[in-house]
């Protein structure tokens, strides 16, 4: 039996301040806050989800904002850079927009593609790449018109402490195809239209340190619950140790640590974020799983208030 993931489902990171994070990803990058909930394992911490108009798989960046968290260090065992894809011909627009908000950007090139790189308020590394493929976003916010808006993930740079073994996993277990290599990176591709290009370091990376400004895990797509169960058996049969299936309300999840120390998750596409809110009202209310609902008042007192708002340009 072999399986293939369509690509990235979501990426989850540690940050400190919910307002600063929302201003950057919502107000500046123009993504939609599609769900405001809590870390089910630490209800005093938000879990915020940003994506396209409905939080489609392949567009979702999620955050645990914890103001007391230590500062992390990006390194081996992590996603080093999260790539977003924008429509072709819009990189100049994005460069001018980001600079208008006082953000420093750098140009990079990998495998013949141009990237616009920057850091978020906590130091998380993100980049924009223009490609024709992938459905256009229907969401417009903060002055970003829909025809220039981020479509979703372009992919990610993975930093592995054992890149040969991580590459073997990407090809032989996750079903990606190796398509190119240079002195620094090996490029892999999945069959999906978003979150489909993975660049893996060639030389082993020194271990990173978890904390604010680092990615906690990368999640890969499973079509449905039936395929998800097959993924769990397949991963276990390939020599890894997946967790039992965990209900995350908006998807089911399994987790396992791969040989290069990166935490992988496999998440189901359904049921999605419309299961408990209407499309026009996504992200407006703090949504709690039923077992936390009796404690809503206490939980809300522990959480720092924030709002989705337009951000003023600096120049």
From TrEMBL:
<protein>
    <submittedName>
        <fullName>Ring-cleaving dioxygenase</fullName>
    </submittedName>
</protein>
<dbReference type="Pfam" id="PF00903">
    <property type="entry name" value="Glyoxalase"/>
</dbReference>
<feature type="domain" description="VOC">
    <location>
        <begin position="7"/>
        <end position="131"/>
    </location>
</feature>
<keyword id="KW-0560">Oxidoreductase</keyword>
<dbReference type="GO" id="GO:0051213">
    <property type="term" value="F:dioxygenase activity"/>
</dbReference>
<dbReference type="InterPro" id="IPR052537">
    <property type="entry name" value="Extradiol_RC_dioxygenase"/>
</dbReference>
<dbReference type="InterPro" id="IPR004360">
    <property type="entry name" value="Glyas_Fos-R_dOase_dom"/>
</dbReference>
<dbReference type="InterPro" id="IPR029068">
    <property type="entry name" value="Glyas_Bleomycin-R_OHBP_Dase"/>
</dbReference>
<feature type="domain" description="VOC">
    <location>
        <begin position="152"/>
        <end position="269"/>
    </location>
</feature>
<keyword id="KW-0223">Dioxygenase</keyword>
<dbReference type="InterPro" id="IPR037523">
    <property type="entry name" value="VOC_core"/>
</dbReference>
